[in-house]
Amino acid sequence: MVSLRSIVDIEDLRVHVAHGSHLLDVELSGAHASEQQDPTPWLAGGELLMSDGLGIRPSTEQQIDYMARLKRKRIAALILGLGGSLPYGELPDGLIAGAREHDLPLLSVPVTTPFIAITQAVYARMASERAVLSDRILAAHAPLTAAAAGDAPLLEIVAAFGRQIDGWAMLYDPAGRMVVDAVGPSQGVRAAIHDYLARHAGKGLRTSLADSDPAGGYAIRPLGIDRLRGLLLYGRTAGRLGDQFTSSVAGYAASLLSIEMERRHAMALIERRPGADVVRRLLAGTDAARAPQVLAAVGLTAERIQVLCATSPSLTPDDLADAVADGVPEALMLTAASGVTAIVPADPQVVDRLHHTLADAHAGLGGPVRPHHCGASYRQARQAQAESRRRGTGLTEAVGLGNAHVLLQLVTSDGLTTFADAVLGTVEGAPNGPGLIRSLRAFLASGGTIEDGSNAAKVHRHTMRRHLRRVEELTGRNLDNARDRTELWLAFEARDVAATL
User: Fold this and answer.
1) Could you read off the pLDDT of 446-490 as tens digits, one per residue?
2) Which terminus of the chain faces fewer neighbouring Cβ atoms within 10 Å, N or C?
3) Distances in Å between the alpha carbon of 311 and those of 143, 320, 356?
4) Topology given in CATH for the domain delimited by 413-498
């Protein structure tokens, strides 16, 4: 940073400070000479403006207004040349008054100090500082490059980057789960990742963030080349975070991390191909003797397996597959545009890990089966996934849906549809069929109580009674009979299961 003070301190320039000695540490963006009565259209802000006074009008009011315009343009300071044949032999009262009123540094130099000397001094210091900064940035790149070639690149790059900026750094995956932790950031800063993902979901690599917390400044950079692969959170408890050195080193660290994360993703895709072929084969049907051999060929020797079906509202199928692989490395996965289908060993610990991994996904897990019954577990997983969507998010296990779901999944889709049509068809096809169906389902789900059923269906209890009498007329069932109520409820369940087969 080239400060105004560094120019004032050059004795050969003979700069006199008339006002603003407390403002000399301001950063200069350049130096510009102008004799325009209003030079602001030619200024960008931050310049050291030099004038011989030819364009500065003599009245006090005009000079105060001149200084006001310079202040609004946010120039760093005004230097006025004095003496000789120049318009002013000393600083005019209007400029001094304007400088004091608007707190703008006002300087002067004698006519013997050429403005070109001031300009050369400013830009020579800028060039020198750029050279020093470039050397410093290159020196910081070296340990980051070495870290990228280490045994644990992600961990080593993040740690080296934190040291280079005299701060801390953390790495997260696209779902906001920590990959590399750090000492230093407050809980408020750590929570910023989840706020960032909530605000910028779907924006991919386009949005970075810089903010501050009572514990210090921090920034978030998205990582990846074609799509979001992770997030770099970094900061420090003191000092500027947005300086050129920190920004440049952060950009280099983000590039190295993006390359490494893309490499890992590409390797994961290659490693998952044999597993995807196994999933296809088992879902297509394999005999009892051959199925365990197919699994063993890719390293899975479990006697019983479960099928997982999952999609995510925030992750692409490939990123979701990466997340499942991180949580359950032994999973065999098939990725498609519709989501992820995986085979996992039937193990309570695996299920616990899936619940954690898929907390923000729409996911269903079929029941434990022998490998040659993979198709049955898949159908259960589809039904459980549909239930997960109805509930919101998270992993839903088929074993928690009740025995009726499991039994119905053993029936073909055509069989389920035929049964449901036979029981509910006359109601669905009647005038106000949708209203009758809604009231009937709410009544059955509430355990056969008029009050709770009418509240769930959002109808008056008298309307509920009228609807139920009409259902009895259309179906020939008696809703006071437990067997008839069970048959009607199974028809609704059959409809739900058939939709997922």
Assistant:
1) 888 888 888 888 999 899 999 999 999 888 889 888 888 888 888
2) N
3) 40, 7, 15
4) Arc Repressor Mutant, subunit A (1.10.10)
| pTM > 0.85 | no
Contacts of 378 by beta carbon, 8 Å cutoff, 6+ apart? 283, 307, 309, 341, 366
**Partners of residue 341 on adjacent β-strands:** 309, 334
First-to-last C-alpha distance (Å) of the chain: 67
Rounded to the nearest 5 degrees, what angle is found at the Cα of 341, between the Cα atoms of 340 and 347? 120
> What is the C-alpha separation between 188 and 235, in angstroms, rounded?
13
Are the beta carbons of 43 and 49 closer than 8 angstroms?
yes
Q: How do residues 12-36 score in pLDDT, each as one tens digit? A: 999 999 999 999 999 999 999 999 9
37: left (phi over 0), alpha (psi -120 to 50) or beta: alpha
Average of pLDDT values for 303-320?
89
Q: CA 283, CA 288: separation in Å to the nearest integer?
A: 13
| CATH T-level topology, domain 150-262 | Beta-Lactamase (3.30.450)
The CATH classification number of 4-124 equals 3.40.1390.20
Q: What is the pLDDT of residue 142?
A: 93
Any residues with CB less than 8 A from the CB of 64 and at least 6 apart, and which? 94, 97, 98, 101
> Count of CB atoms within 10 A of residue 484's CB?
16
Query: What does the pLDDT look like over 49-105, one tens digit per residue?
Result: 999 999 999 999 999 999 999 999 999 999 999 999 999 999 999 999 999 999 999
User: What does residue 458 show for φ and ψ, rounded to 5 degrees?
Assistant: 60, 45
- Counting residues of the chain whose pLDDT is more than 70, the rounded percentage is 92
Q: Side-chain half-sphere of 322: how many Cα atoms within 13 Å? A: 22
Query: For residue 221, is pLDDT > 60?
Result: yes
Domain ranges of the chain: 4-124, 150-262, 285-408, 413-498
